[in-house]
Amino acid sequence: MSTLSEAILGAPAGEYVDREVDIAFAHDGTGVLAREALREMGVERLPHPDRLRLIFDHIVPANTGTTATLQAELREYAGVSGIALSDAGGGICHQVMSEGVVRPGMIVVGADSHTCTLGAFGAFATGVGATDMAAIWASGETWFRVPETIAVNLSGRFSGAAEPKDLALAYVAELGMEGATYRALEFVGDGAAGISMDGRLTLANMAVETGAKTGMFYADAVTVRYLADYGVTASPQAPEDSRYERIVDIDLGDIVPLVAVPHRVDTVREAEEVAGTHLDQVFVGTCTNGRYEDLARFARIVRGKKVAVRTLVFPASRSVLVRAIATGVLADIVDAGCVVGSPGCGPCLGAHAGVIGEGEVCLSTANRNFKNRMGVGGEIYLSSVATAAASALAGEITVPEVV
Q1: Using one digit for the tens of pLDDT, what is the confidence trace for 306-357?
Q2: The whole model's pTM is what?
């Protein structure tokens, strides 16, 4: 009768447990803070450096001398401490960790709120603050309150131009930005089996936008095949007749292209309702929609055409970039007039590499559209890759056609 969170953490919902962490990671921003906290604790020797990762993804390449100096210090610390480092250009932490690192049943903690992305593998994956991460580095474990679980019960198949990002916006709108606070979301039902691993990562990624602790799929044949491509052997997880706090039923056939309008992720409209909205920029990428499947979908739509507005495309990792080059996907994107950035978060957090100006409007495939996030005074709309591609060609928000 256990939910997946209860099974992995080994206790019923509501209990507090201390657990060893299988993998813990921080990025170039939170890693600096975690290192400083560790120094204040007086900890010099780490007990389990093999379980730790530092991944440079937020402000890469460095945008100022100060940023570069902090990153240099963190590189040096990784070298002396034995922490594995993914340097600038390696990719976004959640994507890097999805490439054969995280496995079903693991407890994964990252110093970034979107660590819940990795629950797509049937792992318990959640984000913590930098100070908590320092404590994990020092001890190899942390505490959890085992969350109650909300089931997102999926049936049917996508139709038309709808895709997993549209489903993500749909469930966020249904639950609201505080509707699943400290809950786990389990994506279950016959419809879940038909969603690719890239799509599952997108869906798990946005769980935190409802306040959830994590978003999870049960490992199945899709998971096993995906990990096998990385030389990783994994076993499926058998769902139990779990007792959920709430069940949200969604028929994938009812999903249509959706857009989250400024300045809340849960303020969602059908794309056709906001069609015609002027755009100054389109941004495709991030830990939500920067994977190969996303870039390939974008390329199919823009192939042989030219974008009508500045359009930025940032692959989520080096391996995604390499594959996009090898398959011609990147050439189609460049030929369409898009700007291709280095693998990483890019302008998503508003630090550099494509922020928008006051009064400008951006359609983004990211996960957040908070006021001033990508540039002070700008407006951010969120959409799927297909909607972003169609809109880039038109220069305004446009309902995508089936491709």
Answers
A1: 999 999 999 999 999 999 999 999 999 999 999 999 999 999 988 888 999 9
A2: 0.95
210, 180 Cβ separation under 8 angstroms: yes
Start-to-end CA distance of the chain, whole Å, equals 42
pLDDT tens-digit series, residues 199-244: 999 999 999 999 999 999 999 999 999 999 999 999 999 888 888 9
Cα–Cα–Cα angle for 36, 51, 139, rounded to 5 degrees = 55
Does 1-256 carry CATH code 3.30.499.10? yes
> What size, in residues, is the chain?
403
Q: What is the mean pLDDT of the chain?
A: 96
**Left if phi > 0, otherwise alpha if psi is -120 to 50, otherwise beta: which for 52?**
beta
Per CATH, domain 259-394 is 3.30.499.10: yes
Report, as an integer, the average pLDDT of 44-60: 94
Contacts of 224 (CB under 8 A, 6+ apart): 234, 235, 236
CA dist 150 → 46, 212, 245 (Å)? 36, 9, 6
Residues 357-395: tens digit of each pLDDT:
999 999 999 999 999 998 899 999 999 999 999 999 999
Same fold flag, 1-256 and 259-394: yes
Alpha-carbon distance of 251 to 259, in angstroms, equals 18
Can you name the residues that pair with 363 across neighbouring β-strands? 282, 381
d(CA 343, CA 224): 26
| pLDDT of 403 over the 70 cut | no
In the chain, where are the structural domains located? 1-256, 259-394
- CA gap 227, 209 in Å, rounded: 27
Classify residue 100 as exposed, middle or buried by CB count within 10 Å of its CB (0-12, 13-18, 19+): middle
CA 118, 99, 320, 356 torsion-angle sign: positive
Q: How many CA atoms lie within 13 Å of 84's alpha carbon, on the beta-carbon side?
A: 14
